[in-house]
Amino acid sequence: MTIGDAAKASGVNAKLIRYYESIGLIPEAGRTASGYRVYSPSDVNVLRFVKRARTLGFSIERIQILVGLWQDRSRSSAEVKRVALDHVAELEAKIAELRAMSDTLTHLAHACHGDERPDCPILRDLEEGGGHCCDEPPP
Amino acid sequence: MTIGDAAKASGVNAKLIRYYESIGLIPEAGRTASGYRVYSPSDVNVLRFVKRARTLGFSIERIQILVGLWQDRSRSSAEVKRVALDHVAELEAKIAELRAMSDTLTHLAHACHGDERPDCPILRDLEEGGGHCCDEPPP
DNA sequence: CTTGACCTTCCAATCATTGGAAGCCTTATC
DNA sequence: GATAAGGCTTCCAATGATTGGAAGGTCAAG
Fold first, then answer.
1. Could you tell me which residues come within 8 angstroms of residue A36 by beta carbon, excluding any fewer than 6 positions away?
2. Which nucleotide is nearest to B25 (CA to C1')?
3. Where are the alpha helices (H) located in chain A, listed in sequence order?
4. For the structural domain made of B1-74, what CATH number should be given?
5. Tens digit of pLDDT for each residue in A98-133?
6. Within 10 A of B28 (CB to CB), how many other CB atoms are there?
7. Alpha-carbon gap, residue B40 to B42, rounded angstroms
C-alpha cells in the first residue's frame, strides 16, 4: 500500500500521515526502492486508532500514550481509564469556560434592542469590563 | 504612559499590545523622541475593551468589527447584536462538539473496570472506530 | 513518448500568545 | 560621572494540529 491507499483506508489525510511520522506518533514507514512509503494493514489499524482518538478530542501527546498502552499486552485498564478521565476533565473545563461565555453573551444580546439605535448593552459591557449587570449599574 | 504602564492599567501584556498594534487591531502608538511607545488613558480604554472581548471568546477579527462599531456613533445596535449572536452560535457549536466527546468518553470510562487487567472498552472503541456500543458488538 | 496521477521534500500559513536574544534608554545609586 | 538594574526596542521562533503550495521524481495507461 502506498500512502494514498493508506490514507483512503484509514481516513487520515496523506499529508497528515507524513506529519504523524515526522513527530514520532507513528513509526517510520518502510520504503520502496524509489523512496515511496509502504504501509501494511496493521499500519492502517494504527492510523484508524489515531483518527478515532482525535475525533474524541485527545491531544497527540495523549494519543502517544494510548497507542503505547494499546500495544502493551501487560497494560492495566486503570492506566487507560486514567488517561481518558484526565481528558474528560479537560473537556469539561473547556465546556464550562465556553458555557460561561455563551451565557453571558446570550444574556447581553437578550438585553440589546437590536434596532437602528446605537445604544447597546453589549458594547457597554465590553467598555466597562463586565463587572456589573444591566439592572445594577456600577456606583 | 509607557507600554508597561498601559499593560498594568489595561491588564493586557506589553508583548500582546505590540502584537495587537502589528496586526492593526489597535492604531500605532505615538513615540517619544527615543522611540518608546506612548499611551493615553483613552488608548487604555481600547485595550480594556479588547481584553474583555477576548475574555468572552471573540476572535481578533470580530473584535476589529466590534471596536469599529464601538467608535461609530451612527452604529445600530442590530449590527452589534448580530456579531454577538454569530459568536454565540459558534460557541454553542463548539460546546456541542466537546459535549459529545465528553459524553462518549465518560460512557466508555464508566464501562471500564479500571483495574490491573488489560481488557478495556476504551481501547476497544478506539480500535474499532466507535461504530458500535458495548452491548452491541459489531457483526 | 507523453500525459496525468501519484509520490517525495521543504517551506509557509493558520490563531493568539509567549519566549528569548541583542541592543538601546532611563533612572537610581555610589 | 560611572555603573547597575530594569524597561524599552526589534526580530525571530515556538506552541498544536492541520493544510497549502512549489519543485521535482516515479509509475501506469494510452
1. A2, A3
2. C16
3. 3-10, 14-22, 41-55, 60-70, 77-111, 121-128
4. 1.10.1660.10
5. 999 999 999 999 999 999 999 999 999 999 877 655
6. 9
7. 5
For A17, A100, B74, the CA distances from A54, given in Å and listed in that order, are: 13, 25, 46
Round to whole Å and give the CA distance between B56 and A101: 5
For position B135, what pLDDT does the model report? 52
Q: Is the CB of A27 under 7 A from strand D?
A: no
Q: Which residues neighbour A75 within 8 Å (Cβ) at sequence distance 6 or greater?
A: A69, B118, B120
Which nucleotide's C1' is closest to B55 (Cα)? C16
CATH architecture of A1-72: Orthogonal Bundle (1.10)
> What is the Cα–Cα distance from B51 to A46, expressed in whole angstroms?
42
Distance in angstroms (rounded) separating the CA atoms of residues A93 and B138: 33
